[in-house]
Amino acid sequence: MASTAAPTISPELRSLLRRLKLGRSLDTLPERLSLARQNTLGHAEFLELVLADEVDRRDRTSAGLRARAAHLDPSMVLDAWDDTAEVTFDKALWAELCTLRFLEAANNVLALGPVGVGKTFMATALGHIAVRRRASVHFERADQLLRRLKASRLDASHDAEVRKLIRVDLLVIDDFALTAMDQAETADVYEVVVERHRRAATLITSNRDPIEWLAVMADQLLAQSAIDRLTSAAYELVIEGESYRRRQKPRTPGGGNPDAPEPARRPRRPGGGS
């Protein structure tokens, strides 16, 4: 059987594609030309195929840039979730959250559970879905966000920083109420929550139940008001089970069972060496 020569792309066509900012389509164009020849595609069909490749590439590139701007971990996407993880949660609720109807309705999500069960992973995965649907997203750990807002008071940028948090379509606050908040931090939480209430979606992960948040916030009145608004418009995704982070530990290629128990360690003597 005679071999079919690979299609060649002329220098003139390469130049034209680059002038139209379609240079990246050259990566797949020879393959698409071969496919068109084999399937006797018409001109319109071939053009649609090439342009669909370019739209898909631009969508992926754009989503990647927006995910980085949102501070989303690129490894924590829905397809990377390990379904064999020994954690339990309401699967029907999770499926509903993945539709992002909560985002359209400006409802909140509280991802609650002990350390390491995958709360951050699931919150980040929802952020990636939102980014791919061209929603604006901002992800930040609670302690870092509050420190940043406190520092912004020193250079008079506090109001601008708060407005950015209020405007974003999906605000993801990780590890909320993990540490105590002073008066200024409590006031910042109150302002952001009140301004976003019923206007935009907020997703919070926490190791504590909402009823415990009061104890770590300085101003009880502001805290009660903020917590009431957050919880009254929120879905609660409770995640329980073994640590999901164990499955993310680095292992040697082809070896090691992440679920295998760690070898017993020889106890140290008090005051002794290793």
Structural account:
The chain has 274 residues and is of the alpha/beta class. The protein is 45% helix and 11% strand. The strands form 2 sheets. It has a 5-stranded parallel sheet with strand order 3-4-5-2-6. The protein has a two-stranded antiparallel sheet with strand order 1-7. Helix 9 links the parallel strand 4 (170-174) and strand 5. Helix 7 (142-152) packs across helix 9 and helix 8 runs parallel beside helix 9. Mean pLDDT is 87; it is low at 260-274.
Features:
disordered C terminus, two-stranded antiparallel sheet, 5-stranded parallel beta sheet, alpha/beta, 274 residues, elongated, 11 helices
Write the layout of secondary structure elements.
Layout: H1 11-19, H2 29-38, H3 43-69, E1 87-88, H4 91-98, H5 101-104, E2 108-112, H6 119-132, E3 137-141, H7 142-152, H8 158-167, E4 170-174, H9 183-196, E5 201-206, H10 210-213, H11 220-232, E6 234-238, E7 240-241
Parallel strand pairs: 2-5, 2-6, 3-4, 4-5
Antiparallel strand pairs: 1-7
Sheet with the most strands, sense and barrel status: 5 strands, parallel
- Overall structural class, as computed from helix and strand content, comes to alpha/beta
Shape: elongated
Give the C-alpha Rg.
25 Å
State the separation between the terminal residues, measured CA to CA. 71 Å
Low-pLDDT stretches are 260-274
Short description:
Helices cover 45% and strands 11% of the residues.
